[in-house]
Amino acid sequence: MNYEAFLSQPAVRKEYEKAFLLNLFKKMCLRMDKEITYKNKVKQLFKEAGNNKTRITQIIVKKEFNQDIDNQQAELMSTWFIAHFQKNNNRKDLSVYKKHLIEQQKGLCLACGEPLGSIVEKIHVDHIIPFALVGDELKENYQALCHMCNLCKSASTDYLFRNLIGLS
Q1: 133 near 26, Cβ under 8 Å?
Q2: Is 144 helix (H, G, I), strand (E, B) or coil?
Q3: Is 126 in a helix, a strand, or coil?
Q4: Cα-Cα end-to-end distance for the chain
Q5: 127-134 own/partner pairs: CB under 8 Å, 24+ apart
Q6: How big is the CA angle at 103 (ends 76 and 158), to the nearest 5 degrees?
Q7: Each residue of 31-78: pLDDT tens digit?
Q8: pTM recorded for the entire structure
């Protein structure tokens, strides 16, 4: 299979788009964390946007990165921005999510596909979008990973995509 055909597969395409959006979001968060005036400006735009947060996100991404994103991508990204603005630096006890995640993932590591094993304490609950960017503010931001994948992923925003294409 050639590279273009590989990238056009739905699962690969979905992970690529997510990694791309997360990379843009990460760059924005890093800038907001360094420049408080900039963060306050973006926060104010979101506050004034009311029900138009999706459109504001599209405008910000276009202005900052000269990239067009569709409504679905902008809606997703706007939830990340809101989580970033609301994040609390205190971590939740994520062990309560383990059994649910293991069941949901059919006992497999989401990154490598290997069985997670039966020792629940050795299974890692990972933040899909790194804690540093959104804290514990997103309910669907957790995945169960094996020890090795969690160590390799660390705070990466594109680990699953890199793993899919064989770069991890």
Answers
A1: yes
A2: strand
A3: strand
A4: 20
A5: 129/22, 129/25, 129/80, 129/83, 129/157, 130/26, 130/155, 130/156, 130/157, 131/91, 131/155, 132/29, 133/25, 133/26, 133/29, 133/80, 133/83, 133/84, 133/87, 133/157, 134/80, 134/83, 134/84, 134/87
A6: 40
A7: 999 999 999 999 999 999 999 999 999 999 999 999 999 999 999 999
A8: 0.83
Neighbours of 78 (CB within 10 A): 20
Per-residue burial over 55-71, b if 16 or more Cβ lie within 10 Å, else e, is: ebbbebbeeeeeeebee
Please state, in angstroms and as integers, the Cα–Cα distance from residue 15 to each residue in 18, 19, 96, 121, following that order: 5, 6, 27, 28
Q: Compute the radius of gyration of the chain from its Cα atoms.
A: 17
Structure tokens at 72: 């679905």
